[in-house]
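Colleagues,

For the teaching module next term, I've prepared a clean inverse folding example: a structure given as tokens, and then the sequence designed for it. I'd like students to try predicting residues themselves before seeing the answer, so please don't circulate the second half yet.
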């Protein structure tokens, strides 16, 4: 049975690098890309926009489309196919909740500094939270 890899992805360069890593290093795996929208923020930006939408799932899918287009381009360049799915809400919670259906999580980090304080800031709260709480292996790509 082929392994199943979950790649959470936003529009960052690091997320694209994580997908590239997963596709290149897990050549026989089924790779699924997850994009989470509606992230709560101090200003409630995207979350407010989603809350005001007539169809929450449709609005979330529209916001995820540019990320999925990029993900499909990356996969096509490598002769691979991917699955895509949209999550709504808090990214780390979405990733951890879905992890039970996968063998490994591969996600991007922001930055590559080795000092603990800077690494924690640059790896990001999502990557740090997922790496600490997921019950499956987590690979953080820098």
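(Answer key — instructors only)
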């Amino acid at each position: 049975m082929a392994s199943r890899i979950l790649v959470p992805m936003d529009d960052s360069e690091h997320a694209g690098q994580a997908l590239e890593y997963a596709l290149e290093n897990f050549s026989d795996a089924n790779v699924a890309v997850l994009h989470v929208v509606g992230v709560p923020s101090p200003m409630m930006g995207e979350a407010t926009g989603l809350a005001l939408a007539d169809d929450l799932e449709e609005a979330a899918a529209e916001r995820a489309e540019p990320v999925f287009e990029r993900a499909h381009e990356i996969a096509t360049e490598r002769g691979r196919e991917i699955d895509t799915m949209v999550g709504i809400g808090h990214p780390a919670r979405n990733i951890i909740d879905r992890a039970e259906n996968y063998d490994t999580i591969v996600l991007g980090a922001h930055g590559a500094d080795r000092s603990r304080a800077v690494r924690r800031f640059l790896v990001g709260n999502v990557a740090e939270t997922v790496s600490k709480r997921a019950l499956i292996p987590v690979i953080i790509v820098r």
